Amino acid sequence: MHDGLSFVGRRNTIAELTGRLDQALSGRGSLVLVAGEAGIGKTTLVEHFAAVAGERDVRVLWGGCWPGQGQSPYWPFVQVLRSCVADWGWDRVSGSVGGDARYLSRLLPEREADPGGEDESTRFRLFDTLTRVLVGRAAEEPLVVVLEDLHWADVGSLRYLEFLGHQLRQAGLLVIGTYRDVDAEDPALTERLPQLRRFGPRLDITGLDRDEVGLLMRSITATRPDADLVTRVHRSSGGNPLFAAEVARLLGAGGSGEDIPAAVEHVIDRRLALLGPDEVALLSTAAVLGAEFDQVELADLANLAVTDVRGLLSESLRRRVLVAGDGGRFRFLHALLRDALYRRLDLAGRESLHRRAGEVILARSTDQGAVASRVAHHFSRGNGPRQAVEYDVLAGKHAMRSLAFEDAVRHFARAAEIVAQGEGPQRCEILMSLALARWRAGNGKLAAQTYQEAFDLAKAIGDVRALGLAALGCCVRDELWANEPKLIANLECALDALEDKDPALRARLLARLSRELVLVPGTEARRSVLVAEAEQVARAVDDPAALAEVLGTMHNAHWTPDNARDRLRTAVEIMELGRRAGD
């Protein structure tokens, strides 16, 4: 409940948060997780605490997660970083981290820079750079970061939160995260909770007691409620503030205290019945856009003028179904309100609106990559498979550039699932992207399996270049000791099919085959021939990256204590090639 009601109860929890703030101000930060069911008052609690902290001249930065699968990578931290830039200015933020500011362009695409590669080491630099910004900001002025609705967080954001947690004990920074401890939409948070709880306490928010429910009802109705009514509301709600507040609003609107709804969903339905049918229909349309929406997008989606949208939503704002934000944005007072409105749409209506929403977002965007995740989400919900595949692939590529490898896996996997087996070339390309994303995300075993699937498909459709790339990808785990005959067979098959059509790729395959044969008895002479041909072919093409890969593979495959000088010369040449290739 974000509607400025009198704050009741939670004294012990506020005292715990205040104590954690005191520790942060003395240089010992922590991560506090605030958990509870929907409507229990997690946001109200942290908003009240933020007001308390503000009275002590503590700056509070907010970041929230987006329900569904349409949010941008690292979305809560994008919001936090943008607040830092708004407060400090870009020159000051970038100056605090020097040349590493270029990594922040992964989170802020509006800041053009060359952020380097798309691998785990680059992601580490991004995490480290963002942490230096936040810790540096906290060193100059007291700082609290609030992250709401972590049950909707993307995996990348949770991984960064864990990274940040390790730095908090030596930093004057307090981080507070809220989440629902039941009905989480994604197991990602559940899997990472044990690690996150190492960095501070979990505060479990439970229902208000009977007297607190009475105080809450009184603050809404401006009258003292009957004691028996308070008892019945407390018993029915279990002390859930959202439920109790909604009952109080119904009573304030002339409802009877004799008929208390049995569940919060029912009381929300009764509250919506107080609105006109045109307004409820518009709110249901808005629910398709999410828990927060832009008035211009809603106007386009509903085929209305923006002024008409504002007029229709005026009663919803008055009755606190919606809350106005900045820049013409609105949000539902609670996700349960949005869910109730979304459920009022039949399946055909939902699908039609989701397809239309995807088109509206695209029409208003100047950067399709930045909105691809939202667009893919709407097209997938709207039963638009062709468009969903197109924008899932685009969103996956955008996630890779943002170093959100887990998000990329989700998008590429959904695209691969949609694409029919008969669409061979497109499916093969998606599988290759999915395999790379899985490798970057740290799942080498599953990446190798996906590369093998792409290899088999490339062989079936006769795509020799994809066949060669997939054969190399199958070796992604780089476990020389495994000596897998399947990998050797793949490389030999790819070389036979490729012939001399792609010299750079052929050189890479030859070098890799020599490496895979290291533990195969009696292959010394063959490996020498492969190495010589690989180097000869690689040097004949103007491709520094391919030559560097070939030399690196040869260096690792033919390591002995007796050839240290040769290996040193090779390493120096690889460094020079990397410089020439900009890698």
From TrEMBL:
Entry keyword set: ATP-binding, Nucleotide-binding
Residue runs in coiled coils: none
GO cellular component: cytoplasm
The protein's name: AAA ATPase domain-containing protein
InterPro entries, per database record: AAA_16 (IPR041664), P-loop_NTPase (IPR027417), TPR-like_helical_dom_sf (IPR011990)
PANTHER family xref list: TESTICULAR SOLUBLE ADENYLYL CYCLASE (PTHR16305), TRANSCRIPTIONAL ACTIVATOR DOMAIN (PTHR16305:SF35)
Family annotation (SUPFAM superfamilies): P-loop containing nucleoside triphosphate hydrolases
Any one Pfam family match given in the protein's UniProt record, by short name: AAA_16
Annotated organism of origin: Allokutzneria albata
GO MF term (any one): ATP binding
All copies of domain Orc1-like AAA ATPase, residue ranges: 7-176
Keyword DNA-binding assigned: no
Origin superkingdom: Bacteria
